[in-house]
Amino acid sequence: MDNIIIPNTNLRCSKFIFGTGSLLNILNKKKRLYLLDNAVNLGFTHFDTSPYYGFGLAEENLGEVIKQNRNLTVTSKVCLYPPGKLNHNLIEMFLKKSFGKIIPKLSSPKIDFTIEYAKKSIDESLKKLNIDCIDILLIHEPIIDLLNIDEWRYFLENLVKIGKIKYFGISSLNSSRIKKFLKIKTKLFNIIQTLDSIDLNEADFILDNNLPFQITHGYISSLKKRQPKTLLKDVFNKIINRNSKGAIIISTTKEKNLNEIVNLLKKND
Predict the structure, then answer these.
(1) Is the overall model pTM greater than 0.90, yes or no?
(2) Which of 90, 124, 257, 268 qualifies as a FRET site for 55, CA 20 to 30 Å off?
């Protein structure tokens, strides 16, 4: 897989990023690690994760793979955390998610925009990921009215200075949240990660603000949801052309989906 340099940064990574949001849908750890290893073997060099994914287990599993592949880069996040505590074992996660279908607060994320909790979470993420520096740290689903912008800017810049992160930014499924950050003078981002699709073009607001697409996601999931009869191979070029310079996240639990992406990329070259 070809590598790209994420626009407005010096960070080189694979065109497609492997997202770990659904990784813990695979309950067998060996199978999870096999999927991650297979992604590495297919050319994925960047992985997107969060302490909320798998209630910390996604970072932990990814860390085992990173330990054996020091060339990999990673995105993690703050402000959206597992319910109750940062660390869960598989049984705890499974029970919370299962009973959370009846009592939502058991599995709903802990939302905390304090720097104090972010510091704790970052240290835990570094430990789980077996790294000294997170390549990209994103504020997960930021709410501008709940963030002290100047304090956060100082905090994030200091993290870069002391070498705990390289880049920082914001990530949201809700474009209206990101738009508010584009209007303020103090910028809380080097990188914006946002939802997009080839039918609704949700990320057009990025271009409207004379910014490049850096990291986008949602193309394949939106296709399955709104155009279930459309084959990925028939729209793959549109996806690539939609974000031609930046990186695209895909999240899957199936090896065949990874192989399909890589084979389509080869045909696209």
Answers:
(1) yes
(2) 257
